[in-house]
Structures are given as structure tokens and as C-alpha cells.
User: Fold this.
Amino acid sequence: MKKLLFLSILSAVLSLSAFTVFHSGYHVGDTATDFSLKNVDGKMVSLSDYEDAKGYIVTFTCNHCPYAVMYEDRLIDLHNKYAPKGYPVVAINPNDPAANAEDGFPEMQQRAKEKSFPFAYLFDEGQKIYPVYGATKTPHVFLLDAKRKVKYIGAIDDSPRDAEAVEVKYLEDAIIALENGKNPDPSTTKAIGCSIKTVK
Amino acid sequence: MVKLIISILLLAAYTSGQSQEWQRSDLDIYETFDEFESILHIDNDTTYLINFWATWCSPCVAELPYIEALNETFKDKKYKNILVSLDFKKQIDTKLIPFLNTKKIKSDVVVLLDGKSSKWIDRVDPEWSGAIPITIIYNKKKRLFMERQFHSEKELVELIQPFLKS
Assistant:
């Protein structure tokens, strides 16, 4: 009986730690990993490819999620405004097409073409990068500085459903803070999004 | 003729009693989180399962049958499901209500329209990242928050049972 109790406590602890691992990932201040992921143009892209970047707007996003779609135009505008200043949007689709066919690589290529994405739209093949970053949903933004130090994590602004009703542009404020050598405040925010789709 | 009218009336009464068609008036629609929040803190003897979902969220839709099945499993207990839809305002009539009818949803359904989610996610639970689905099981003594998808009714039953004993 004692053994059974011990085993059940052990398994509870293990499952709890598994849960914690799942929810781990970067916090503000951590140094984010670089990666080499396939872009919609077929070329491999790494953060180190962006010469003279002062930072990176790493954005986990996808085709199928309505919240991701609602932010497409705002991401395009952000890239067009801030890439010339050294802060490119680097979009990554973390979803497994086996779990959601709309998020396959050919579908990504098609969406990028339809919307004329001016930024890289990369496929996290094998779903290896998003857990390292700790992305839990789309869209989910990680703003990194030139040394890939995480400066801001969270939402693009405070009004996903209605671009007209935006009161606080969290991400843009964070980029401006970075540009001015300050730490973004708030450095983390939350917004509704679609859970990242993987096959169990 | 009278017989015919009576039988038509009877048929009409029968079908209206049978069908539980969802209509807009069946939904509590909350424009702001402030108006909605008390649903997360009902202080009585009932155990509540609150599920945040949307028709556009595939894992949410996939787990709904397991949540729906709880209505039958716990029909003799002080237990209640409340499905909190995060569907968009424009899609209440075009997507949400047809979905509720097609799937013959029996649980209570409310709609939360407050788009400023960054202001209220922590008030639902500080552990919540913002991804859906989430499920909260609570009564006046205990509370459980889960940001995950369920794959069977059994998983839910096992989590709910301790609440019904307490």
C-alpha cells in the first residue's frame, strides 16, 4: 500500500514536472536561440542572416487561426515601418500540418503570396523551435534585441478583434523602448490566441 | 376538419416540445468582462465546469462532446456546465447558433465579446497564457484551472468527482 502511494505520488510529481516543462520557455532577459528554418521562398533563414539587425520581431503565427489572420495586415505594417530601422518581423508557423492541414508548407506559400508578406514566413518543421521559445499560441510575439536577448513577450496590441479600437500598441511601444535603450514596460502581455496544433 | 386541426395542433405542440432549437435569446451575451466575471465565482452548492471555446477553435470543438456527456453523467448531482464562447459578434447568428443546433448542445452557453483580452486574461486565471481551450472546475471550496484539451469524458469525470464529494 505504501509502495502504491509512493508510486502515485511519484507519478503525480512527474506529470506535474512534465506540465511545467511544457509551460517553460523564455522569460524576458533570457537569450533566445537562433534557428535555421525554411522560408516560403524555399531558402533557409536564420536570425544571423539579418545583417545590421538591431532586434528581431519573432512572431509565432499561422494560416488557420482567426486571431493570426486578424493580425496579418498589422504585422505587414509593423515590418514595413520597422524593418528599415533594423527590426524585421520574422514569422514562424509552429503548427504541425498533420494536426491542421491549413498550416502546411504549400498553404503557407500560398498565403504569403496572397498577402504579399514582406517578411520571412518560416516553417517550424518537426515543431522544434516553438517549445524552446515557449510559444503557446498564435499569434505570440517574442521581441529580441541585437544580441537575441528577449525584451518583450506577448501580444501585438490590446485589441485583436478590432484594429480601429486599439488603445495600446504593446509591441510597437516595446520596439520604441528598445530603440531608445530602455526596457519595455510592460515587458509581457497576454492575449487570446489559438493553441499550437501538434499531433499527440 | 376539426380532427385535422386538432391533429395539426397536437403535432405542433409535440414538435415544439421536442425541438430545443437555440435562438439568440437563449444566449447570455456579455459585452464586457466586468459583466461576465461573476460567472467564475458563483457561491452556492453547485460544482461548475467553465469551458472557454469558440466554433473556430478545432481542439475546442473536438472536446465538446466529452463536456456535453457530463450533463447526463452528473444529471442527479449539483453540477453544471457553462460554455463560454469567444466567437465574434458578427458570427453569433451565422456560425455559433447553427453550430449549437447542429451539435444539439445542452449545456448553458454564454458569449463573451470583450475584445480587450490582455486586460482580463489574468482575472480568469494568472496561469492562463491566452490559448483556448481552457477548462475551470470550481465550487465554493475548490478550484482547478486547466489549459489543455481533453480527449475523453473519463478524464473529466475523474477530475470532477472529488468536487462533488467535497
